[in-house]
Amino acid sequence: MNKQISVLPGDGIGPEVTAQAQKALEAVAKKFGHDFKFIPVIGGAAAIDAVGDPMPKETIDTCKQTDAVLFGAFGSPKYDNNPNAKVRPEQGLLKIRKELGLYANIRPIFTFDALIHKSPIKKEIVEGADFTVVRELTGGMYFGMKGRTEDGNTAFDTNIYSVYEIERILKTAFEIAGQRRKKLLVVDKANVLATSRLWRETARRMEKDYPSISVDYMFVDNASMKLITTPKDFDVIVTENTFGDILTDEASVITGSMGLMPSASVGTYTSLFEPIHGSYPQAAGKNIANPLAAILSAAMLLETSFNMNAEAKAIKDAVNLSLAQQIRTEDIAEGKAYSTTEVGEFIVNEILK
Ligand code: IPM
Ligand code: MN
Known about the structure:
Bound molecules: 3-isopropylmalic acid, manganese (II) ion
């Protein structure tokens, strides 16, 4: 198949890990006889430095015209530590999410046999944990009205959701649950928040349309605890933007290392795939970052956007082998640590075998 992929490496370790993911996709194309064309685009701090805009229109246009977006990370300490900065890399991320209509962020959480002992949680609690968080990504507090009073002494962020926004993300979550163990958990704060009550009301109404799915409800504070104490109880969790942001960071570490978890953002236009670890500026330029989350994001891209399941499996098998054979970056190494590029090359060679 002929496919075009926008490559948006971004900041920090983004370019290094994205390069490995692109290499893995090139290897897949060669092995399976596809033609993937990669189109580089800019965004984040890198684009602020280059053109003064964290999300140039050309980037959005190119992403919309291609079949998938392979994304690294946005964020730079240069802007984090400057509360007066007028433009921030993160604005670029929110803008591309909004412009591409990426309302569903899908973050699967699973364990690797070879790394179970790396989890901060006891093996018997975490072994076999396998769930997916569906995070609403274009609404809520991230996009609601925000500001400061004139005297500067009061600030506000508005959490806002419409039935339309809630229904479409719940539909995605119901469908994902249907392909898995058919258990959907709606996480909210309906004992306090009006938006959560609307979520719950909407979900209750939609339950009737999905009779094969068992639906449960849980408050977010309780869910944050259960993620640690009984992670195996979960199948599909659906929640709003802010809760999803926090819960997925929490969930990503229970299985060993945050450097391993991929994600997909899907919606109205082209889907985007990214590791959930962020730009990790401390490791940038050192060739030490773990490329596996980015490489697994490439596998998710193949499955989700191109329906290429055998191709995705070739990547996942190679990743598992690299872990089993201790070809690992320093964050998860148990002996010699390999560099980002060495791990990437091992994966490429395995795919090509
Ligand atoms: C994420 C990140 C972003 C978010 C930041 C960088 C804006 O933390 O993708 O989870 O909060 O959504
Ligand atoms: Mn986050």
